[in-house]
Queue: 3 jobs
Job 1
Amino acid sequence: MKEELIARVVQVLRINMSWMTWNLFLAFIPLALSVWLFRFRRGGSWLWWLGFLVFYAFLPNAPYLLTDVIHLIDDIRTIQSVWMITLVLIPVYLLVILGGFEAYVISLINWGYYLHRIGKSQWIWRVELITHFLCAIGVYLGRFLRFNSWDFITQPDALLTKGVEEILGKQPLVIIAITFVVLAGLYWIMKRVTLGLSQRDSKIGINSGRANSNTPNI
């Protein structure tokens, strides 16, 4: 019985690893772009603006991982073992979902860093709210209408016609509003956690450097 249960868990994880790996890859594309755009480059060139558009096209893929919790519910029904669910399934899903959302948080932190660098710090919170709203729309388009980031190029007509028509409905607007609130709330929490850990590591590094400078060479 245990062998069958373990085999079932392995099978479920093996099936999930394909879409988990792919969704994480899509989530880390905007993260990589945010480092290049907002940390190492200065805007103005056509290449920067092209990268900026690609960044926003792929950014919803990061918070989109939050909606993958629906797969967890299906897997729980399939495995039906409290220990396997608690010790194996839930940790894997948490790692993937938090990894994707952390990519979203760091991407926006880098965007805010860029705004601060060019003297537009007062725009940071506005840009964050606009981004949450745009990503809420993107998550809806991806989860319910099954559009992808590259559909902006491959089928823009379908994205505009079907997407706009669907979004203007009452139920989609409610879902988008709820998604916006969830994104804004989780981002507010995770941003402070991330910045807090970053500042702590910086202080540790500075203190270690001072300690090393006071240590005589042998």
Job 2
Amino acid sequence: MSETITPPKNVEDASPVVVESPRRRFLRRFRGRRAAVAAAVFLTLITVLGLAAPLIAPHDPLVQELSARRLPPLSEGYLLGTDNLGRDTLSRLLYGARVAVSAAAISVSVGLAFGVIPALTAGFLGGRWDALLSRIADAFLSFPPLLLAMAIVGVMGPNLTNAMIAIGIVFGPRFFRVVRGAVIAVRENTFVEASRSIGTPTAWIVRKHILPHTLSPLIVQVSLACGFAMLAESSLSFLGLGVQPPDPSWGRMLAEGREAWNYTAWPVLIPAVAIVLAVLACNTLGDGIRDSVGRENRSER
């Protein structure tokens, strides 16, 4: 909420000064970035359509109709056509959105669990803890993200759950770096030193003073990670390490569409466009959030 500060009585012709709360300032800035707002609406739409897929899908995504193979979009009874086995592309696309959203949510949650708590420990305590945990994070960061995820899935077995866990483990060191840097920047502030001097428990200081100051950069990183999670899940499913047939996912649809590429391009183009738009929306939303939580520009004062 906004607060009104009344100046001293001896100040003549002075109007009250309205101090804008951080939340209202963020919403005002974010609403001014139309691309980020459109990205947020698009991602919300994907989430709703994915969750409601069993209710709104016109056909069963697993049922094969060999007499209706490779139909183009706008065919009778098939709005986006059919694939090489006669399955409805629209239904599989909706169920694939459900997989993409689940992959982003679960993998980011796993990444936060692996990254945030060690980062708070390393950043606040420093010393040996910081050196040890930072070296572990550096070891994971030295591997290419997708290659590391493929190695983890290869050990755990190819399925959607293992793919999401693998992607989440890849996110952990990146969240660690972001949160650790924010904690180090805050821990030497006066209000933290004052809490320490009066004997405030460490857990209370971390929860009340340190953690809130890490949320802004962490939220930006999470929004960007969602896009990478969707792309990584599609890549793993395309390679046969994620969603297994006949279950639908956008990456699986791409792999199956290659078989019909010489006959029609629609089975490949439709899921490819869905992946591109979803990842682009996540990145655009992340940029909008980053600009909205940043320091105020001169033009906005």
Job 3
Amino acid sequence: MSRPGTGKALRGSIGTYAGVALVVVWGLAPCYWMIVTALRDPADTFSTTPWPTNPTLQNFADALDPSAKVNFSRALLNSVIIAGATTAIALLVGVFTAYALSRFDFRGKYFVTGIILGASMFPVVALVTPLFQLFTDIGWIGSYKALIIPNISFVLPLTIYTLTSFFSELPWELEEAARMDGASRGQAFRMIMLPLAAPALFTTAILAFIATVNEFLLMSQLSSEKTAPVTVAMARFTGTDPYVTPYASIMAGGTLVMVPLVVMVLIFQRRIIAGLTAGGVKS
């Protein structure tokens, strides 16, 4: 004889798993279809079969072909350079700013916080024209500086708010104990607080890197053929025949961008989740 409520709990579990499965399919179906299309023979690009028809790796070779009008290999390197530099600078500035906002009380603290929040809410499309004019006047159009600096302003608020929330929940008694043992404030921050903040730092770096790689609007206006990232390269990709849109090669390029990011997130998912949930519960 089953216990009362067992059937209800079973139905609830089935509903939960069905909902999770629906969300997973909804989120991953476009990615799966992109990979399947990338593996199809170009003649079967528009086939509706749920698996690759006449599977081939030629589309990946075409996407990475250096003789193509758009150098996708160079675009991949450009994205790594731009996203890496943006993430490193934003993390360096953000960790000190977040520490100051969470640790110290000073005049104008909430005003500074409001300015950071306002910067994060500013629409990107409104910045295209003034930034294009500014960088044209100083000769930066098409340079890495014109692509990195605006991205820093976009990911820095995210960095600061994520780390501020985390630093606010750290036990400051550990830092005070280190100070009492003779450590300077800088030594206590470097040897005590930063190791404790490692999960949040790692999570913030991943989110900032992905956000920078996904940026398209400003990158399409401020980059050149030599500095264009992958988002711009895929939009401009024409293959070897300018009169035929190489959808399969474009899908192959998208797969080359997506798979490393997905693998990286899957490998470090525990650290990412730990960083996102850190500071979420007050003791």
